[in-house]
Amino acid sequence: MRAAWRRPRALRIAILAGLAIAVAAWQAAEPWLFPGPVIVSGRVLDGQSVIDGDTLKVAGQSIRLHGIDAPELRQDCDGWPAGEEARRALAALVTARPVECRRVTTDRYGRTVATCRAAGEDVGAILVRSGMAWAYHTYSWRYLLPEWQAWFDGLGIHARNCINPAAWRAASRR
């Protein structure tokens, strides 16, 4: 393996890209290969169920989408209402479609963290790929490739001067 690092730069980039793709593929498949318990199944949601770009409320229970971080509801990026657009994008995905969520963990605020699918499609992947959320690398790499694609295509948050929600919250407190 050490000899490969002495080869041309393109080979090193290809090796790193291959490794990133393999990790992303594993993390994308892992929750469905070893799924957590179903907490929402086949329920058709309405727009009132969407709290913000990465949080749903179903039957009184807050559900935070695993592995993504959407702009805060009041966050804007150079005048573009990023938080409200992310909320609209999530609402468009889950409204009038059967939703299934599988519990992953509980966050520090007591919310259930889950992976969700709407009509069989991974909601987090769609939001990240369309530039409505960042992949939350601290907790999962499963959306790394869709984030790179959105960044490369200059979609949503990647088309504007957006800062991540944690930095926005810190700046808002000042």
Describe the structure.
β7 (112-118) and β8 (121-122) form a beta hairpin. α4 runs parallel beside α5 (144-153). The longest helix is centred in the N-terminal third of the chain and has 25 residues, at 9-33. The chain has helices spanning 2-6, 9-33, 82-94, 123-129, 144-153, 165-173, and strands at residues 38-44, 50-52, 55-58, 61-65, 68-69, 98-106, 112-118, 121-122, 134-135. The chain is built from six helices and nine strands. It has one domain: OB fold (Dihydrolipoamide Acetyltransferase, E2P) (Beta Barrel). It is of the alpha+beta class. The strands form two sheets. Strands 1, 2, 3, 4, 6, 7 and 8 form a seven-stranded mixed sheet that branches. Strands 5-9 form a two-stranded antiparallel ribbon.
How would you classify the helix and strand content by structural class?
Answer: alpha+beta
What's the overall average pLDDT, rounded? Answer: 86
Give the amount of beta strand, in percent. Answer: 15-25%
What coarse outline follows from CA principal-axis ratios?
Answer: globular
What's the level 1 CATH class? Mainly Beta
Provide the gyration radius in Å. Answer: 17 Å
CATH topology: OB fold (Dihydrolipoamide Acetyltransferase, E2P)
Count the domains.
1
CATH architecture: Beta Barrel
Q: How many angstroms does the end-to-end distance come to?
A: 49 Å
Q: What is the total tally of β strands?
A: 9
